Amino acid sequence: MITRTNVCVPAMVVAVLAAASACKPRTREFKLHGQVVQSDAAKNTVVVKHNDIPGFMPGMTMPYKVKDRSGLLALAPGDVMDARVVVLRDGSDYWLDNIRITDSSARKGATPSHTLKAGERVPDLELINQDGKKFHLSDLKGKAVLVTFIYTRCPLPTFCPRLSTEFSKIHEDLAKTPGDYARTHLLTISFDPDYDTPSVLRKYGMAYLRDDASGFSHWDFATTSPDDLHLLSEAFGLIYIEEDNQISHSMNIVLISPDGTVVKSWPFEWTKAELEDALRTAARSKHG
Question: How confident is the model at residue 209 (pLDDT cuts 50, 70, 90)?
Fold first, then answer.
C-alpha cells in the first residue's frame, strides 16, 4: 500500500527563498537593432539610432547605459549593431547588454568634437530668456549655475518633463535657504528655438514655478541661435537629432562654477539630491 506524505520545507528556507526572489530585480527584455551615433567608454554610454522596439518604444535616436563593457569598447560611430535592452519592470531604469556589431563598414573616422572637462571655461554665448531679454553666461558670474537642455514639446515623461520636474524641486529646496538661493542659478536651454519662443518658454516655465513669476529671477528658460546651440552642444557633450517632428536627445546637466568654469557634468545618470548637493557646494566654495 502506497501512502502519500507531505514534504515539509523548513520555514527558514522558505523565508530565504522568498527574500532572494524579492531582492532580484524583475526585468523585461527587448531586442534592439540600430546604428551607433556616439559612444563614450569612460561614461559607459552609447547613443543609438534604432528601429522600433515593439513593446518598449518607437524608433528614435537616444542614449543608453551599457553594462556590456567589452561590447561597448568595440563600438565606433557608424557601426550597425544588435543588442538586448533590459528594462526594470517599474520602468525606473534600463540598459544594454549582449552587444554584437553586425556591420562596421560605415565607421566614421572624423575627430570627435571637444567636450569641456572640469576646470575648462564655458563659452560666453548670447541667450534670450522667457521675457525676451538677451543675456550672456558671463552675466551669471559669481553664482554657481546648473544648466540643462529640453524642448517644450517633448512627449516622453522620463526625459524633458523629468528634467524640469527635478529642477523645480531643486528650485524649491534652494528657496528655503536664502544664502544658497542668492548664490545659485538654474538655466534651462531649449534646443528647439524655432518653436520655443520666449512666450512659449515663459508659459512652460510658469507651470514648473507653480505660477509664481518671481521664480524667473532664479531660474531662466532660454533659447539661442542655431549656431550657438551647436557650439553649446559640443561644449557640453549634448546630442540632439530632429526626426519626424520629435527631437531625440541626451539628458545632459552641467554645473558651472562662480568663476565660469565647468565643475562637473552628468550626461546620463544623476539624482536630484546629487545635483543639489553639488550646486550648493560649488556656490559655498566661492564665498567660503
Answer: very high
Q: Indicate if 95 and 138 belong to the same structural domain.
A: no
Q: Is the pTM of this model over 0.85?
A: no
CB contact burial 83-95 (16+ within 10 A = b; e otherwise) = bebbbeeeeeebb
What is the DSSP-derived secondary structure letter of residue 111? P
Average pLDDT over residues 30-47: 85
Structural domain of 95? 27-103
Residue-level pLDDT at 19: 45
CA atoms within 13 A on the CB side of 214: 3
Domain-embedded: residue 95:
yes
Query: Which domain CATH number covers 219?
Result: 3.40.30.10
CA 164 to CA 58: how far, in whole Å? 23
Considering the domain boundaries, does residue 225 fall inside one? yes
Report the distance separating Cα 137 and Cα 190, nearest Å: 15
Distance in angstroms (rounded) separating the CA atoms of residues 108 and 101: 15
One domain, residues 82 and 223: no
What does the alpha-carbon distance between residue 46 and residue 140 come to, in Å, rounded to a whole number?
Answer: 32
pLDDT (tens digit per residue) in 218-268: 999 999 998 888 888 888 877 777 766 777 777 789 999 999 999 998 876
Give the residues across from 87 on adjacent strands: 28, 94
- Cell readout for 225 is 541661435
Total residues found in the chain within this entry: 288
Domain count along the chain: 2
Tens of pLDDT, residue by residue over 175-204, are 999 999 999 999 999 989 999 999 999 999
Beta-bridge partners for 158: none
Backbone angles phi, psi at 18, to 5 degrees: -65, -40
Is residue 265 located within the same domain as residue 218? yes
